[in-house]
Amino acid sequence: MAKDRISVGILGLGTVGSGVVKVLRQNREGIAHKVGLPVEVAKVVVRDLNKPRSVDLLPGVLTTNPAEVLEDPAIDVVVEVMGGIEPAKEYILRALHRGKHVVTANKDLLAIHGKELFDAAAEHGSDLFFEASVAGGIPIIAALKESLAGNRIRKVMGIVNGTTNFILSKMTALGAGFGEVLAEAQALGYAEADPTADVEGYDAARKIAILASIAFNTRVTLRDVYVEGIAKITARDITYARELGYVIKLLGIAREAGGVVEVRVHPAFIPREHPLAAVNDAFNAIFITGDAVGDTMFYGRGAGELPTASAVVGDIIAVARDLTHNVSGRIACTCFEQKPIRPMGEVEASFYLRLAVKDKPGVLAGIASVFGNQDVSLATVLQKKTMGEDAEIVLITHRVQEQNLQDALCIIEGLSTVTEISNVIRVVEGEA
Ligand code: NAP
Ligand code: HSE
């Protein structure tokens, strides 16, 4: 019998789940025209039936029993917006094994167990879409999988965590310290009560792992990503960056060269003219370089109820269109190659170094000679200020292999003339 509607079961009615219900409701007629059938929320699974909700549902729609979504043959699309690894993984696999199609926003799960989920989707010819898992409302997954599919992607570089971008933007604008701005981000609801995953870079690492997998057609997991967070960035680093013509951003960077993939998350100096330097507050942006398209940038809100729901609902519509045209499974997993990951020690970058040293003759020469012996060439050397018997110096290196820089720093740390290596931050120029 021909379908008269697309039935959706939602797992979770928190920030994103509520947004999905609202967007499906507020744009109901337009969505029905685009799909050719009405799209209806049939069931919503939560943990606690008595919790106050920001959306009203008809009696019987809310349930604590996942089987009412996963086992009901009338449900076409399962939307997983619960978060976490389990039971989300088990529920998605159960849905796929029942021949249902799945939309998820779950970066934590995809960045670790993506292969298992995509294999199950392929086995059953199901759609498994995940636009909201990276950069909230920005349509970056579909862009990579569809609109840019004709390119060989060389580089993906992005600001993919709103919380840390908010913190760094405020530190830059106000000259404030990290702790002070983190407290404000928490008060405004940008940062979680436990902001570790954002501040330490793990949220961005999950997102860049997902983007790298699609961009380079090879499975990249969270374990492959080198991660550094922003907790070590000080107001002084931000001031020196500005004086040198840079801004500091937490970047996710993935590149492919010679069949080898490098993938990392760390704070970086980027030139103030770079388009990513102008991305402020909680906004996200992803800069992609393809061999045919050249440079492109995608900008928007990386989180929040309605922006994230925009991505989830876009995926629901894509699944619904595939169902109405009987072409489900059309855009499958694109990891059809196996490329090695470049060890971090072999990655090349320029570096900003801030050191506290004894303020006496010959100190700089001693440091320069250690760098020279390790093949680290210096581009800029500045003495910034004196602090009692110490002076603060700032150095910018030319591009060097990470390992050479780290070896040099180990030696420099042991010099009697060096009081402290105060900070080390990579510098990203526009290199492809
Ligand atoms: P949330 O506000 O914490 O909501 C989670 C929902 O899932 C709640 O309704 C909760 O039920 C339900 N839930 C959790 N565990 C469950 C279980 N075992 N059984 C049944 N229901 C369960 O989370 P969120 O912010 O909406 O995020 C959802 C997903 O979207 C996560 O994967 C997140 O990473 C991703 N995401 C979020 C954003 C964002 O801006 N928030 C942006 C992009 C991606 P109760 O309400 O009864 O507790
Ligand atoms: N915590 C994330 C951020 C939002 O700050 O960007 C969810 O992906």
Could you list some keywords that capture this structure?
432 residues; alpha/beta; Rossmann fold; Dihydrodipicolinate Reductase, domain 2; 3 domains; eleven-stranded mixed β-sheet; six-stranded parallel β-sheet; binds NADP nicotinamide-adenine-dinucleotide phosphate; binds L-homoserine
What does this structure look like?
- There is one protein chain.
- The protein has 432 residues and is of the alpha/beta class.
- The protein has three domains: 6-136 and 305-324, Rossmann fold; 145-300, Dihydrodipicolinate Reductase, domain 2; 347-427, Alpha-Beta Plaits (2-Layer Sandwich), CATH 3.30.70.
- The protein is 36% helix and 27% strand.
- The protein has 14 helices and 17 strands.
- The chain has helices at 15-26, 28-35, 67-70, 88-97, 107-124, 141-147, 162-174, 178-187, 196-199, 202-216, 235-244, 305-324, 363-373, 402-413; strands at residues 6-11, 39-45, 62-63, 77-80, 101-104, 128-129, 153-159, 226-227, 246-257, 260-271, 283-290, 294-301, 348-358, 378-387, 390-397, 400-401, 418-427.
- The strands form two sheets. Strands 7, 8, 9, 10, 11, 12, 13, 14, 15, 16 and 17 form an eleven-stranded mixed β-sheet that branches. A six-stranded parallel β-sheet has the order 3-2-1-4-5-6, sandwiched between helices.
- Strand 4 (77-80), helix 4 and strand 5 (101-104) form a beta-alpha-beta unit.
- Helix 1 packs across helix 12 (305-324), helix 5 (107-124) runs parallel beside helix 10 (202-216) and helix 7 (162-174) packs across helix 8.
- The model has no long low-confidence stretch (mean pLDDT 95).
- It binds NADP nicotinamide-adenine-dinucleotide phosphate and L-homoserine (HSE).
- NADP nicotinamide-adenine-dinucleotide phosphate is lined by residues 12-17, 45-48, 51, 81-83, 87, 105-107, 132, 136, 303-304, 308.
